[in-house]
Design goal:
The structure holds two protein chains of two kinds. By secondary structure, chain A is an alpha+beta fold. Helices cover about 20% and strands about 35% of the residues of chain A. Chain A has one helix and four strands, in the order ββββα. Chain B is an alpha+beta fold. Chain B contains 17 helices and eleven strands.
Chain lengths: ~50, ~425
């Protein structure tokens, strides 16, 4: 299982433990919670280049 | 933006959540899980675990389903509580063995940190490993277990206090404006997470690390120069200046119990918070340290006893304009033992007892401080010999009074 970092809150999580994911610019991002996911989807540019 | 890997089967949800497919079907039947065309989402795994946690608290899935259906409950903000933390493949007993330390030592470390008592066969959290690996380094250097545990307790107590308070702060200060806007309790919590919590990111950890670095700079610099001074003294090129003993000061608010009785707990808590802010400011101005807050009082430490007297006089002057009840302070200078972030010994005990003899707006000092003389601009006026609780001999106390200020002739009763 891969360790990934939630781009919104910065938390390190195992990819299988993510509450949700989102694709952006060809990359899959993993989120610790739905709230982080929703914040990212609303404005991905705020969290990743 | 959807990802095919996000679509899970009934079996996958059960397996990841550590339960059975029958349980998944039960939760679907109750409407707690709502698969689309038989497909579940990642968050359903977390939801299943949260429902299990609630059941362990005595809240059955039927009750959860009813609260969800009526809109009183949302699993959204609870889902992250269902997340499992990454664990290594090694058990704690195996890690202890790898490091050459007994499991019982590791167990005592966890307890000293204030963390749950671990079991030998549980897989150790990945995030614990870097800390655990430092323990043998200390033992190899000759540090004994008692000292390692002492440091662990200071870390644990300090971090726990911050974590516990910030959770309380989030509830009372951050969520409250959302509740005032008319949101239901769980809606206010979700809104606070969305609008504040997420935007703050990992600022809690960053603040803790930042403040540790800033405070360490001060203490480590002082420590390094102490060593340099010792080296220069041993080399015969420098004579260390005569060392004064430190001073302990206890400041209490007069009539705090009555305030609590008459104005209520909230007013008393507000007074306590105002006092905490005030004493931090005063301590900083006089090179002092707030050792601990005591509700209606504070225990200070000063390296220079004269700073202790000046800070005490400032507190007495400053409390009333802040809307606080009058303060009374006791100060004593002498040897103390520092350990685990606190100061101990007869000097500390005396300062606390002396404070209880002082009346409103008074600063009383003990014999140890009087021997060092008064700070510039201050007189020490003898007020009598006092029997202090737990102190074998009567002690002569003096009142610290700014020059040009009349002394208070009579010592009020307590």
């Amino acid at each position: 299982m891969a360790m990934v970092t939630d781009p919104v809150c910065g938390m390190q999580i195992e990819s299988d433990e993510a509450a949700d994911t989102a694709e952006h610019a060809g990359t899959t991002y993993y989120f610790c919670s739905q709230a982080c996911h929703d914040a990212f989807v609303a404005a991905p540019g705020s969290y990743v280049a | 933006m959807s990802n095919p890997a996000d679509e899970l089967t009934e079996d996958e949800v059960a397996q990841r959540a550590g339960t059975t497919t029958a349980r998944i079907r039960e939760l679907v039947g109750l409407g707690i899980l709502e698969p689309e065309h038989g497909t579940f989402r990642r968050r359903d795994v977390l939801g299943v675990r949260v429902v299990a946690d609630l059941e362990a608290m005595g809240i059955g899935p039927e009750g959860v389903a009813e609260a969800l259906a009526s809109g009183h409950l949302s699993l959204d903000y609870l889902e992250s509580e269902g997340r499992r933390h990454p664990r290594s493949e090694r058990s704690l007993a195996e890690v202890a063995d790898d490091l050459g330390i007994p499991f019982a030592t590791l167990e005592r470390m966890y307890i000293a940190f204030g963390l749950p008592r671990p079991t030998p066969d549980e897989r150790v959290r990945e995030e614990d490993l870097p800390v655990i690996r430092t323990i043998p380094v200390l033992f190899a250097a000759g540090v004994d277990e008692g000292d390692v545990l002492r440091a662990a307790r200071v870390w644990g107590d300090s971090a726990r206090r911050v974590a516990q308070y910030l959770t309380h702060y989030f509830h009372t200060a951050v969520e409250e404006p959302f509740r005032r806007r008319g949101l239901a309790d769980n809606q206010a919590y979700e809104a606070a997470i969305r609008e504040v919590g997420l935007r703050m990111g990992r600022s809690g950890e960053q603040t803790l690390a930042w403040l540790f670095r800033r405070h360490s700079e001060t203490f480590m610099r002082q420590h390094a120069f102490d060593h340099a001074e010792t080296a220069l003294e041993q080399a015969g090129v420098h004579a260390r200046s005569a060392q004064h003993p430190g001073a302990a000061a206890f400041a209490d608010l007069s009539g705090y119990t009555r305030l609590t009785e008459e104005a209520g707990d909230e007013a008393a808590a507000h007074a306590s918070l105002t006092l905490a802010q005030l004493v931090s400011e005063v301590a900083a101005r006089h090179s002092g340290e707030v050792v601990k807050m005591l509700g209606d009082g504070v225990h200070f430490h000063f390296n220079d006893p004269h700073d202790a007297v000046m800070a005490s006089l400032e507190i007495v002057d400053a409390v009333r304009p802040r809307g606080l009840p009058p303060a009374h302070v006791g100060v004593e200078a002498g040897p103390m033992i520092y350990d685990e972030g606190d100061y101990f010994g007869r000097t500390v005990n005396l300062a606390a007892r002396i404070a209880s003899q002082a009346g409103p707006d008074q600063v009383f000092v003990g014999e140890g401080l009087a021997r060092l003389g008064a700070p510039t601009g201050v007189r020490l006026v003898e007020v009598g010999r006092f029997e202090l609780k737990g102190i074998s001999q009567p002690v002569t106390l003096r009142e610290a009074i700014r020059d040009g200020t009349a002394s208070v002739p009579d010592v009020p009763d307590h």
